[in-house]
């Protein structure tokens, strides 16, 4: 994600996105096992903090004493602290891929959530291993991921162009492995099992994000792009090429000028059934 776009990202949060998070989290929280025990919850990739405070926190039972909300970008954490503070929420800069961070928090959390933040990570085995390590025995993990979409195909094509290739050598690190999978649910269940998780609930659904016109869609592409900040000049040209290729690979413009972005969304609820701490080299 573009690290300088925290306020824009907050403004561009889509109704379809918010409704999906509300629906999935509500369903998963109801399916989770809760007791009178005090819980500490982890929110991975909290971004601007609006989902953490306005959706996740109200869904949690009173037995949740604290939500630790992490994001890799300090700009997002600063925005969250200033705009979505709450006495039960502690915002911290952190990267779920960081094994050093994980080692300090072994078995600290009983529940973990993540919505639309794991889209930009290719190594989901590492993510699942780290979440396993962070969760206590029997801990549960609810997550929502953009599995496939035109933007991934656009990045793949941009990375082959002579103009943008120098800034996108690591492009594969910023898409999901599901981009290449044929049977997303089956393959994710297999991966999760190897990482000590049983998938209790899983769904891959088609969802279309709508934008009133090209300008809003280009702003969205600029905000979510992990590459814009690496380009010293002609950032506008990069977004224009991304926009053009998204239209080539499945996004489309309606007669009224609005833009539709079709995506496949993976949502799942997993339970830790095996401790990997003695099996994984940290």
From TrEMBL:
Residues 38-147 form the Methyltransferase domain. Coiled coil: none annotated. InterPro entries: Methyltranfer_dom, SAM-dependent_MTases_sf. It holds the Pfam family Methyltransf_31. SUPFAM superfamilies: S-adenosyl-L-methionine-dependent methyltransferases. This is Juvenile hormone acid O-methyltransferase-like. It comes from Limulus polyphemus (Atlantic horseshoe crab).
